[in-house]
């Protein structure tokens, strides 16, 4: 294992988490009114109606797949009768489809942002870096998923070890290169999260689903 890898896979994840926590506190305290998507639907809506659902719904399935793959050990899925072969087959089918939806939606969103003048002018430098990290993360993750490369013996144990404060750089060093690129780009995204429009994900109007009905009465 190269001498740089322990430094990267042990120290950098915690620096990223500190940046995320500190950035969220800073953003909420000093830029509370900027905690928004900076919606651009008024400038262009035709392409947005296609690109936004592709990206957001695809991303929900991608996140669900990551939660299953990273937090649930292989022994647990085998215990319920799901073989390793069946798991990876399902991951390639559903993960590949979700990844393609996210990638297609993101490409359309970037195209729309670049070709629509007012939308492009509202794009910050941090947003541009965020889009680049997203593209790299999605391409690497999609390629690794479709290749069927194993990650539950390397990336998953390393990921879980971070949260129990016992980071295991040895297992991560054996991970396929595509997954290393995917994880590195993902950490860049997490670090940038508080400083880009992605922060709006923490302000989803969940309470709207459970609010009381509004009753409108006629004056007559």
Helix and strand string, N-terminal first?
A: HHHHHHHHH
For the biggest sheet, the summary is: none
Estimate the mean pLDDT confidence: 86
Structural class by SSE content: mainly alpha
Count of individual beta strands = 0
Overall geometric form? globular
- First and last CA, distance: 80 Å
Any low-confidence stretches, pLDDT <50, length ≥5? none
Compute the number of helices: 9
**Spatial extent as radius of gyration:** 20 Å
Q: Percent of residues in helical segments?
A: 55-70%
In percent, how much strand structure appears in the residues?
A: under 5%
How is this structure best described in words?
By secondary structure, the chain is mainly α. The chain has helices spanning 4-30, 46-71, 74-79, 84-115, 117-121, 125-147, 155-163, 169-173, 177-192. Helix 2 (46-71) runs antiparallel to helix 4 and helix 6 (125-147) runs antiparallel to helix 9. The longest helix is centred in the middle third of the chain and has 32 residues, at 84-115.
Defining key terms:
220 residues; mainly alpha; 9 helices
Concise synopsis of the structure shown:
The chain has 220 residues and is mostly helical.
